[in-house]
Amino acid sequence: MKTQGQSLKKKVLAAFAILCILFIGIQFYRPEIPNPPVVADFTGPANVKAIFEKSCYDCHSNKTELKWFDKVQPAYTLVAQDVKEGRTGLNFSEWGKLAPGDQKAKLFEILNQVTTGTMPLPNYLALHHSAKLSKEDVAVLQHYIAGLMVEKVEDTAMINARSRQQAAKVNKMTKVPVTVTGVPYVDGYASWDIISTTDRADNNTMRVIYGNAIAIKAIHDNKINPWPDGAVIAKVAWDKIQDKEGNSTTGAFKQVEFMIKDSGKYAGTKGWGWGRFKTLNREPYGKTTDYATECINCHRPVANNDFVFTLPIKQ
Ligand code: HEC
Ligand code: HEC
């Protein structure tokens, strides 16, 4: 019995020794994490930048600063991989290379990642406690980014002028069009504030998302999960026309869609009235009430966000 116990001990020791040798051995395997020069660093407000530096720059800039425990293998290989992938999708040291619209889109994405707890990477936070975002940090980011999104986009005037011009060509509506689910067309949306614009290369449309006064106030007060009753969000799509210089302008009006918040009246459709009106004749979309299910299903990925894609700020 005694000899068996000893030989087991020896085996354990030998295995441990092998592990130690392997552990030391892999320390020599060191993929490079170069820090290329910072060419066009992020230039937002100082408090916003400080948050990114504290929590994101290790993986999303050319100023990666590793702690000693990051340099111990096998952690080091994982960190090197994170930095490489992180910089590919978002590099604050090359921020200035992005077109203004792309910067906005990135910030929007950042807000999404941060408010859902996807970023900073949770396994990184386990060791880098100081990178954890406080509630105040998140509020600072929300405030800054929400402010940018509500700001009127440069070509708003052009878009509105075009929209009015087109609207003038249409016969005056004798009565308000209504969908089969009883959702009415909401007149006057073109004079509301713009929440955001999106540009879909896949189907060559330009979209503008407007909010009525209640919706805009809710954004400012950060009370959009759920959105208050009375909030209306409109999404308008035009064909996109690209000129020789690559500038885009709006072509023919395609449709306007509404999400009208009324938690009582529209309780059966997630608290929203869903309406789509096509062409300048505002033809209500949907022969049967099933069409609303189509809207809801496609908006389901943002169910936690009261079914709204735009500005998904979590409380
Ligand atoms: C430990 C490294 C690490 C830290 C710290 C980190 N990220 Fe990331 N991030 C990644 C990696 C890796 C990816 C690539 C996709 C993935 O793995 O999810 C990524 C992807 C992203 C993306 C998507 C980029 C794209 O379009 O591909 C955004 C946005 C983002 N991170 C924002 C942030 C923000 C904001 C912070 C700080 C609050 C942050 N990240 C902190 C590693 C990190
Ligand atoms: C194929 C998927 C899909 C379907 C179907 C769909 N939506 Fe959307 N909707 C989106 C996406 C994605 C956005 C985000 C903005 C963008 O990309 O244009 C959006 C945005 C909106 C917005 C602006 C508010 C927000 O969520 O950002 C409204 C209003 C809207 N949709 C109404 C409707 C209505 C009404 C229907 C049904 C008649 C509908 N949608 C059907 C995908 C869809």
Automatic annotation (TrEMBL):
InterPro entries for the chain: Cyt_c-like_dom, Cyt_c-like_dom_sf, Cytochrome_P460, Cytochrome_P460_sp, Haem-bd
**Which Gene3D superfamilies does this one have?**
Cytochrome P460
Domain of life per record: Bacteria
Keywords of the record, alphabetical order, are: Heme, Iron, Membrane, Metal-binding, Transmembrane, Transmembrane helix
Q: Name one GO molecular function term.
A: metal ion binding
In the UniProt record, does the keyword Metal-binding occur? yes
PROSITE patterns associated with the record: CYTC (PS51007)
Q: Does the keyword Protease apply?
A: no
Bilayer-crossing regions = 12-29
Q: Which residues form the Cytochrome c domain?
A: 43-149
The identity of this protein, by name, is Cytochrome P460
Organism in which the protein naturally occurs: Flavobacterium rivuli WB 3.3-2 = DSM 21788
Q: What is the lineage of its organism?
A: Bacteria, Pseudomonadati, Bacteroidota, Flavobacteriia, Flavobacteriales
